[in-house]
Task: inverse folding
């Protein structure tokens, strides 16, 4: 008689499992639960941010809001996996109340209906928030799609070339290094190679690195070759600047200045961090995230105790001086994460309160305590950035020359096409061949040759 | 109702209504969790449904585009070929071959050696996939891998230079236990007297295997091959080791579906490929079942 009972038991279990996925208790006089989700985890990825949420945000918010319980849902995975998880959460009508997203995903999430404008979810109090006046327009843009505000930006960043001064000294290169064109990067790489550095230059390439390839590699180089990926309603195809970028990759790999294997490994980016920290990489193109979260002496994932003295940073030069976008000598790319509200939240007003609280001056300052980063708030930045010369450098030297990615839903697919083009070059195919393949893939993605510039 | 009055074919004597009532709960579960998702997959495969973006909110039916795209996509064809090599190398040759060899060697043996071998082989089978994946990652890693330390070959990138071979060896190691146990049980059914007779008639080991053992365990062999090739065809574990990389060189079909459907967000295209995989699985299964049935008929003789 056990057999007929089993399906009933399975059904009961299924119901239990499904109902436990909900986001918490309904609003009312009884206790209310809010959940914060972020791709950060104590002792792992973005550890300091996870600690801040657990040690500051949650206790402070619960102190001023009786009957509210705030939970933190950590993740420590690569960005693509996190994005998939959040998309599936939102699609199935569940998920955390306040969610971390990369600003570049806002467009596609909004188009899919997974996120709604903040005022639609949080109500009219959103527009009267004191923080808006403190966030510069360019930074607010990270959370804006189609003219509507979907998320609060957490700050922005800039890309630079990090270099290991110890290795530079060994290779007879200057301690204060600032290349003025791409050739000087290659020249430095050759000296490092002659001095026995295993991987003189690491500029991310290949699909395994994901968006890091596009953001730390292709796009800054493309800006240095004088082109943005999307201008005046058209995507950049196999144009001369793109071919220049691929040819530069080819130059690095054919001269043995970069490690092609590193671009193919499933955990290649993490390895590039570890290898830079271990003194095996001479020059690494990365965002200031690398400085404040990776090689940070105490909480970094690949800490360097002598970071402040041993690691230098330089602006990314244009291919030739004046050859960058807008006629610039130096270029960079910026992005940044935002926090959005879950439209399915059972307590949307309260969720907005929590979100606004996480972006208040006091909260932002407490997040920065002990370390500096470029916060979204001008009032906080003027107070804290002086404490870290690297971040002050990014704010004053890099952000004025930077560019942002187009906030369009198709961008992530274009990004993959760019990654595949670099992968082809790294594995030994010609730059022109890779550019042609990229062009045809791009035309398929963006709806025909009319939307692509070439030649 | 007494058994004597039950119509022929109703061995349990339940009658149609009560039999249906017993089967119904199971059929409902199969319908909800198996048939409906399968039909839903077919529908999804005909749309441009995506994980994010406009097509997530309002998917359009695009007909057979996803299927024609997949069948003309060199990445799909490469992936299909890699999967065939993976199934052939790791399941049919590796697991079945090694499993039989172990079962043959250990046959009739007792004591600590047999228990130790069986224990080790079983252990690799019962460990969770993710744990095993990380163990093998630690073994084959380029920088700090155990294998490179043992062989004194620092920097040899097994997973990058030989991705397919790596996951084949990995899967042989992982799945041999099932074949070994099944063949051990099958070999116990081979009467020792038959082997004795064959030996007395002067048959060597290959001849004994071919003329005595194989005819007796043929159905076990086919069942085993059917099960392990279907499992291996749908195996996702290599993802833990290589993620389908480098640049798609170990991207077997399940990983390919994951990469396009979830990583790339093209749920419609992923569903279409899933359906193609389902068809391939059906063809596999039908071919094996035909072989099995043909064997059974010839054993019981022609119908009167």
Result:
């Amino acid at each position: 008689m056990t057999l007929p009972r089993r399906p009933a038991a399975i059904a009961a279990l299924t119901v239990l499992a499904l109902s436990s996925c909900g986001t918490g208790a309904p609003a009312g006089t009884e206790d209310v639960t809010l959940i914060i989700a972020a791709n950060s985890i104590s002792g792992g990825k973005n550890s300091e941010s996870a600690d801040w949420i657990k040690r500051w945000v949650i206790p402070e918010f619960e102190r001023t809001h009786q009957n509210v319980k705030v939970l933190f849902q950590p993740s420590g995975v690569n960005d693509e996996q996190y994005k998939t998880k959040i998309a599936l959460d939102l699609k199935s009508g569940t998920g955390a109340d306040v969610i971390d997203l990369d600003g570049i995903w806002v467009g596609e999430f909004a188009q899919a209906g997974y996120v709604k404008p903040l005022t639609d979810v949080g109500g009219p109090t959103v527009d009267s928030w004191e923080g808006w006046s403190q966030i510069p327009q360019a930074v607010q843009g990270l959370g804006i799609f189609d003219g509507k505000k979907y998320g609060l930006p957490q700050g922005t960043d800039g890309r630079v070339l990090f270099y290991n001064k110890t290795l530079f000294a060994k290779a007879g290169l200057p301690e204060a290094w600032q290349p003025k064109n791409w050739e000087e990067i290659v020249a430095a790489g050759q000296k490092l190679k002659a001095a026995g550095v295993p991987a003189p230059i690491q500029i991310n390439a290949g699909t395994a690195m994901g968006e890091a390839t596009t953001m730390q590699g292709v796009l800054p180089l493309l800006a240095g070759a004088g082109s943005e990926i999307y201008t005046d309603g058209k995507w950049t195809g196999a144009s001369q600047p793109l071919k220049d970028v691929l040819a530069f990759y080819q130059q690095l790999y054919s001269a043995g200045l970069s490690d092609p294997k590193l671009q193919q490994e499933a955990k290649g980016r993490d390895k590039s961090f570890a290898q830079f920290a271990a003194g095996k990489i001479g020059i690494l193109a990365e965002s200031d995230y690398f400085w404040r979260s990776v090689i940070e002496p105490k909480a970094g994932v690949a800490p360097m105790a002598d970071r402040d003295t041993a690691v230098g940073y330089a602006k990314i030069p244009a291919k030739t001086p004046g050859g960058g976008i807008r006629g610039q000598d130096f270029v960079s790319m910026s992005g940044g994460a935002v926090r959005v509200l879950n439209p399915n939240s059972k307590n949307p007003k309260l969720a907005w309160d929590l979100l606004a609280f996480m972006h208040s001056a006091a909260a932002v300052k407490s997040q920065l305590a002990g370390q500096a980063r470029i916060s979204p708030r001008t009032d906080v930045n003027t107070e804290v950035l002086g404490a870290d010369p690297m971040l002050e450098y990014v704010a004053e030297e890099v952000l004025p020359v930077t560019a942002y990615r187009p906030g369009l839903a198709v961008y992530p697919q274009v990004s993959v096409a760019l990654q595949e083009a670099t992968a082809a070059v790294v594995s030994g195919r010609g730059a022109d061949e890779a550019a042609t393949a990229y062009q045809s893939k791009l035309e398929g993605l963006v709806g025909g040759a009319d939307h692509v510039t070439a030649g | 109702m007494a058994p004597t009055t039950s119509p022929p074919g109703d061995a349990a004597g339940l009658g149609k209504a009560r039999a249906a009532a017993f089967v119904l709960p199971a059929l409902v579960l199969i319908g909800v969790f198996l048939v409906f998702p399968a039909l839903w997959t077919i529908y999804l495969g005909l749309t441009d449904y995506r994980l994010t973006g406009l097509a997530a909110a309002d998917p359009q039916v695009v007909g057979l585009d996803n299927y024609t795209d997949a069948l003309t996509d060199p990445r799909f064809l490469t992936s299909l070929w890699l999967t065939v090599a993976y199934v052939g190398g790791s399941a049919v040759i590796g697991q079945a071959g090694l499993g039989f060899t172990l079962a043959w060697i250990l046959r009739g043996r007792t004591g600590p050696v047999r228990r130790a071998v069986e224990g080790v082989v079983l252990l690799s089978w019962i460990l969770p996939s993710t744990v095993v994946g990380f163990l093998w990652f630690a073994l084959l890693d380029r920088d700090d891998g155990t294998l490179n330390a043992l062989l004194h070959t620092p920097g040899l990138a097994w997973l990058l230079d030989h991705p397919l071979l790596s996951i084949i060896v990995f899967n042989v190691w992982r799945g041999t236990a099932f074949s070994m146990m099944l063949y051990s049980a099958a070999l116990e059914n081979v009467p020792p007297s038959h082997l004795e007779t064959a030996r007395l008639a002067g048959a060597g080991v290959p001849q004994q295997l071919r003329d005595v053992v194989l005819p007796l365990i043929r159905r076990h062999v086919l069942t085993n091959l059917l099960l392990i090739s279907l499992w291996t065809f749908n195996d996702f574990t290599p993802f833990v080791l290589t993620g389908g990389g480098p640049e798609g060189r170990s991207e077997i079909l399940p990983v390919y579906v994951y990469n396009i459907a979830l990583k790339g967000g093209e749920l419609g295209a992923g569903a279409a490929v899933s359906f193609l995989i389902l068809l391939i699985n059906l063809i596999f299964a039908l071919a094996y079942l035909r072989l099995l049935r043909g064997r059974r008929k010839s054993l019981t003789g022609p119908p009167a």
Summary: The first strand of chain A starts at residue 32 and ends at 38. The interface with chain B takes residues 4, 7-8, 10-11, 80-81, 84, 87-88, 91, 105, 107-109, 111-114, 206-208, 261, 264-266, 271, 409-410, 412-413, 416, 423, 427 of chain A (CB under 8 Å). Residues 23-153+336-401 of chain A form a domain with the D-Maltodextrin-Binding Protein; domain 2 fold (CATH 3.40.190.10).
